């Protein structure tokens, strides 16, 4: 589904990874090509721009690992950034359908694949999740659409709400709810009417249905081949009715795939599934890491860099532990810890993981030790000279003033940091004395 983009990026990175050393210009040129490739795949300009910027920033700040080439490292960064741009919260493919009967509202434009997707999803819920599913068509303007859903229902062995002529969509939604409750269904899918374009009447109808159905999930079904139009449609539906996720259909075609890449970044809504054909099982969970892998087609390199990073981190940890055991803990060590904490999701997250530090994590949180504080502390350390970092005890008033000013902070902030370094240094000494098998070893694991 991303053949063209994949081919283009493949070309860029093949060249990049073959080179031993990379200049800043090499990376810039490559990233310019990445940007063009994204735009050609119909990724929206702001998203493409932001993507390349994020990669550039990470590429310049990346810790250099000896065992991989800079080009390989760039591939890994692009790979991670692809995952980031594609990811939503929660587990891919999971829908909020506990508390039966759970209503799912299917919305979208006519011809986008809404009815087909409703049936595909019903089949999936029945077969994979063992749910008892009911489907109901609310498309009163197109009797053929109602028939279509009933036929698909028979085909996949899923019940559909009997068609009653002359009923309006809200009444059908109510009847579906009652029927789902009485019949002991786990989930019921409401296939709303579509229009060729977004119009006021359609939106009002969908809103009215939403208000009576109170859906657990509202999924927009949209044709992935329409590129940026798909993203606009999603924005519109989200503003009016509020969607919880997107299903991109026709991703089996030779579309440019840009909709998939822009969707989450622009609408903030995750793609939950992709349609890959007309058949009833042609519905796939949208898994960002697999999709990123498919787009880049460079799984080997990604795995290689991951392994090298792990080795590097293990080596760093080992070195640090040796220093700590000797009771050495200066500003360089503190900075390394702070950087690590930032990477691991902040101070609280890190301390939660260390044995016996859960309480401290809570205190830190209460004291407002969030990422902002971490960043400020790192800035203060960056503002010190090499000698000062290695020997923080030499810091007197004039040096402190200079350092604080350099980081745009107050001397009192610096004093807090120094106190923290002293406390940690003391703690390290104590832990070091507990020996190799002690708490420190456990904490570093
Ligand atoms: P609706 O008007 O939104 O309900 O659209 P339909 O569900 O009737 O689908 C319109 C057409 O698109 C039908 O011929 C479907 O078979 C086809 N279709 C739906 N999803 C996909 C898909 O993922 N891939 C392909 N190739 N065709 C699809």
UniProtKB/TrEMBL annotation:
An individual GO BP term: SRP-dependent cotranslational protein targeting to membrane
Entry-linked SUPFAM superfamilies: P-loop containing nucleoside triphosphate hydrolases (SSF52540), Signal peptide-binding domain (SSF47446)
Signal peptide limits: none
All copies of domain SRP54-type proteins GTP-binding, residue ranges: 270-283
Pfam families linked to this entry: SRP54, SRP54_N, SRP_SPB
Major localisation: membrane
Documented EC number(s): 3.6.5.4
Cited PROSITE patterns: SRP54
Catalytic activity: GTP + H2O = GDP + phosphate + H(+)
Superkingdom of source: Bacteria
UniProt subcellular location: Cell inner membrane; Cytoplasm
The UniProt record lists the keyword Hydrolase: yes
Recorded topology in the membrane: Peripheral membrane protein
This protein's GO CC annotations: plasma membrane; signal recognition particle
InterPro entries for the chain: AAA+_ATPase (IPR003593), P-loop_NTPase (IPR027417), Signal_recog_part_SRP54_M_sf (IPR036891), Signal_recog_particl_SRP54_hlx (IPR013822), Signal_recog_particle_SRP54_M (IPR004125), SRP (IPR004780), SRP54 (IPR022941), SRP54_GTPase_dom (IPR000897)
Keywords assigned: Cytoplasm, GTP-binding, Hydrolase, Nucleotide-binding, Ribonucleoprotein, RNA-binding, Signal recognition particle
GO molecular function per UniProt: 7S RNA binding; GTP binding; GTPase activity
Residues annotated for GTP binding in this entry: 108-115, 191-195, 249-252
Function: Involved in targeting and insertion of nascent membrane proteins into the cytoplasmic membrane. Binds to the hydrophobic signal sequence of the ribosome-nascent chain (RNC) as it emerges from the ribosomes. The SRP-RNC complex is then targeted to the cytoplasmic membrane where it interacts with the SRP receptor FtsY. Interaction with FtsY leads to the transfer of the RNC complex to the Sec translocase for insertion into the membrane, the hydrolysis of GTP by both Ffh and FtsY, and the dissociation of the SRP-FtsY complex into the individual components.
Complex and partners: Part of the signal recognition particle protein translocation system, which is composed of SRP and FtsY. SRP is a ribonucleoprotein composed of Ffh and a 4.5S RNA molecule.
Domain notes: Composed of three domains: the N-terminal N domain, which is responsible for interactions with the ribosome, the central G domain, which binds GTP, and the C-terminal M domain, which binds the RNA and the signal sequence of the RNC.
Name of the molecule in the record: Signal recognition particle protein
Origin species: Sagittula stellata (strain ATCC 700073 / DSM 11524 / E-37)
């Amino acid at each position: 589904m991303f053949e063209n983009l994949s081919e283009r990026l493949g070309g860029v990175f093949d060249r990049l990874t073959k080179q031993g050393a990379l200049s800043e210009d090499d990376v810039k040129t490559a990233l310019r090509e990445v940007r063009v490739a994204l735009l050609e795949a119909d990724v929206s300009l702001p998203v493409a721009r932001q993507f390349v910027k994020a990669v550039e920033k990470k590429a310049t700040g990346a810790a250099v690992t000896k065992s991989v080439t800079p080009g390989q490292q760039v591939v890994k960064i692009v790979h991670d950034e692809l995952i980031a741009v594609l990811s939503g919260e929660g587990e891919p493919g999971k829908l909020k359908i506990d508390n039966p009967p759970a209503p799912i509202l299917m919305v979208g434009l006519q011809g986008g694949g809404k009815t087909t997707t409703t049936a595909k999803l019903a089949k999936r819920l029945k077969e994979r999740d063992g749910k008892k599913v009911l489907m109901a068509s609310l498309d009163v303007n197109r009797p053929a659409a109602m028939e279509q859903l009933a036929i698909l229902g028979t085909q996949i062995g899923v019940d559909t709400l009997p068609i009653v002529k002359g009923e309006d969509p809200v009444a059908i939604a109510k009847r579906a709810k009652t029927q789902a409750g009485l019949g002991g269904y786990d989930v019921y899918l409401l296939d709303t009417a579509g229009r060729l374009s977004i119009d006021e009447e359609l939106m009002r109808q969908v809103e009215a249905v939403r208000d009576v159905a109170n859906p657990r999930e509202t999924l927009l079904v949209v044709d992935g081949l329409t590129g940026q139009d798909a993203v606009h449609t999603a924005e519109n539906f989200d503003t009016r009715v509020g969607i919880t996720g997107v299903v991109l259909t026709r991703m089996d075609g030779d579309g440019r795939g840009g909709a998939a890449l822009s969707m989450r970044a622009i609408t903030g809504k995750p793609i939950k599934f992709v349609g890959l054909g007309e058949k009833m099982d042609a519905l796939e969970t949208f898994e960002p890491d697999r999709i990123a892998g498919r787009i880049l087609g460079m799984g080997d390199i990604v795995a290689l860099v991951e392994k090298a990073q792990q080795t590097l981190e293990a080596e760093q940890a080992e070195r640090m532990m040796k220093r700590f055991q000797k009771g050495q803990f200066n500003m360089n060590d503190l900075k390394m810890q702070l950087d690590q904490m930032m990477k691991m999701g902040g101070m609280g997250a890190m301390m939660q993981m260390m044995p016996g530090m859960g309480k401290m994590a809570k205190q830190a949180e209460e004291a407002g030790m969030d990422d902002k504080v971490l960043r400020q502390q790192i800035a203060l350390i960056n503002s010190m000279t090499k000698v000062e970092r290695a020997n923080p005890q030499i810091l007197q008033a004039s040096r402190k003033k200079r350092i604080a000013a350099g980081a745009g902070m107050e001397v009192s902030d610096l004093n807090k940091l120094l106190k923290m370094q002293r406390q940690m240094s003391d703690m390290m000494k104590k832990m070091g004395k507990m020996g190799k098998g002690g708490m420190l070893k456990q904490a570093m694991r």
